[in-house]
Design brief:
alpha/beta; Rossmann fold; 5-stranded parallel beta sheet; 50% helix
């Protein structure tokens, strides 16, 4: 695979100085156009030590406008990063639409190193490469242009490069014992690299192998590939929304395939469940005290918790959240209220704003509305195209799998009320001054599409209620019952997590 990158190509100095001025001009002009485009550019640099990854990134910064270009290098994870799933540090550094980011030692480094040093076997290595493919597909499906460069040197050329750097009094600091260890393991690294490139070079995120023997050659080669790829994307004709399969907005959920009246998971809930006030008050004190104890233990054990609240308008999400937070130390939790995305959030993949708020080890994050907006309101109201919300189920499952694999207690609550109870609560809000602000025109508009939303919720539960991240469907016509059920289930899950057993209730 790498033989064509071991030819010791050189670009003569005269040719280099002749090509560079025009190349720089074209890169800058392309960058100006990119700022107005609706896609980001993600450039990944990996490869052999000493092959010029850092030097190439520095050269691109020299040739391009650094105001619209960022470079991110990743070493060993920090304590803050170890507290969270592996991809947290990558997601938070992704560029917005119209910008370009250069990633050194990216999401490829740790799987390759772990495999070469024997920390993971071939099966786990392949699993991690598959996760990389899913990650890159999520970005590419959302429009990102992904360019990946493997900077290569032969074993002899690498040895020569390391020795040359080691002898340079200004650059010898760059060479460490670990670099020489990697050289001694060259064949193992190349074997892992070959498998990596074969399994992760896709049409959406292809690899380009660039010979790193000559500085002038590699700089021009990389810059030319970047220029041509972005130019091609910029010049691509914009395909108008066709409205049919794959592009339609506001897709209405389908009724039962047999033509029968729809039966959903929500329609089967017992909405008559209730609690007397005295029983409620007693249980509330019990579960809040228990939750406080469990969360303090979870913090000591560095077990994080993420709670997701979805449900009908006026179903009591805020009330349930307040009964949880009343039992917690304010330093241990954050409540993230999700509304329409800001300009900054809209410039990124829809999952970006949720990845940013993943809690540190031992802390709690509560989402009042969540990433499920993609397959609910964005689907029903036409903010996401059919192909966008259809693929979101898989993207969400993968996201949640990463949370659970990290040891995070993930709980998802849907608070269900009947259409009659919602109307009663809306009318009540209209009559109470300090509650009237909660009722908006959008709430009434959503109510008109109750049937569509119920079918969409059914699809959501069907496709995203997994063994590791099940949905908790809570009957909420009686607020007291709903609040206690949420607290009870949460305590049960935390107890299971602290005991090290299955966390599903």
């Amino acid at each position: 695979m790498f033989r064509t990158a071991e030819l010791q190509r050189k670009l003569p100095k005269e040719d280099y100085h002749q090509q560079v001025p025009q190349l720089r001009e074209e890169l800058l002009l392309m960058q100006m156009e990119l700022r107005k485009a609706d896609f980001p550019v993600v450039v990944v640099f990996a490869g052999v030590d000493g092959a010029g990854k850092s030097e190439t990134v520095n050269k691109l910064h020299e040739w391009m406008d650094s105001r619209w270009l960022v470079a991110r290098a990743f070493g060993e994870p920090s304590d803050e990063e170890r507290d969270r799933p592996e991809y947290w540090r990558y997601w938070r550094e992704l560029p917005p639409r119209g910008r370009m980011a250069l990633f050194l030692s990216s999401w490829y480094s740790m799987p390759i190193l772990d495999h070469v040093y024997g920390h993971i076997g071939l099966a786990e290595f392949d699993e991690r490469l598959e996760r990389i493919k899913n990650f890159e597909k999520t970005l590419a499906d959302d429009g990102a242009l992904i360019l990946k460069f493997w900077m290569h040197l032969s074993k002899d050329a690498q040895k020569e490069r390391l020795r040359k750097l080691e002898k340079n009094p200004l650059l010898h600091w760059r060479i460490s014992k670990r670099d020489w260890q990697h050289w001694e393991l060259y064949e193992q690294f190349i074997g892992a690299a070959e498998r990596t490139l074969m399994k992760t070079s896709t049409g959406l995120a292809p690899w380009k192998i660039v010979e790193g023997y000559d500085e002038r050659y590699r700089s021009v080669a990389v810059a030319t590939i970047i220029r041509d790829a972005i130019r091609f994307r910029l010049d691509e004709p914009k395909t108008p929304a066709a409205g049919g399969n794959g592009d339609a907005r506001g897709s209405k959920p389908a009724a039962d395939a047999a033509g029968l009246p729809p039966v959903t998971v929500l329609s089967q809930l017992d909405s008559g469940k209730s609690l007397e006030k005295e029983v409620y008050n007693e249980k509330l004190k019990h579960y809040q005290a228990r939750l406080n104890q469990l969360q303090r233990a979870a913090r000591e054990r560095k077990i994080s918790t993420i709670l997701v609240f979805e449900g009908w308008d006026a179903a009591g999400k805020g009330g349930s959240i307040r009964r949880i937070t009343a039992a917690l130390d304010a330093r241990d939790y954050q409540v993230i209220q999700i509304a329409a995305p800001t300009d900054e959030e809209a410039a990124h993949n829809y999952l970006w704003r949720f990845w940013r708020h993943i809690p540190r080890a031992g802390r709690v994050t509560i989402y009042d509305r969540s990433w499920y907006g993609r397959v609910l309101v964005e689907r029903i109201e036409g903010f996401a195209r059919t192909r966008e919300w259809q693929r979101a189920y898989g993207e969400i499952n993968d996201f949640e799998a990463q949370l659970v694999e990290r040891g995070i207690v993930l709980m998802k609550f849907w608070l269900h009320i009947t259409v009659e109870e919602q109307l009663r609560r809306f009318q009540e809000r209209e009559q109470i001054a300090y509650k009237a602000w909660k009722l908006t025109d959008e709430d009434w508009r959503n109510r008109e599409r109750w049937g569509d939303y119920e079918l969409a919720v059914n699809d959501m539960v069907e496709r995203t209620s997994t063994r590791q991240a099940p949905w908790m469907l809570i009957e909420a016509n009686d607020k007291r019952h709903a609040r206690i059920e949420v607290l009870r289930t949460l305590c049960q899950r935390l107890e299971a997590a602290l005991a090290g057993g299955p966390q599903n209730p």
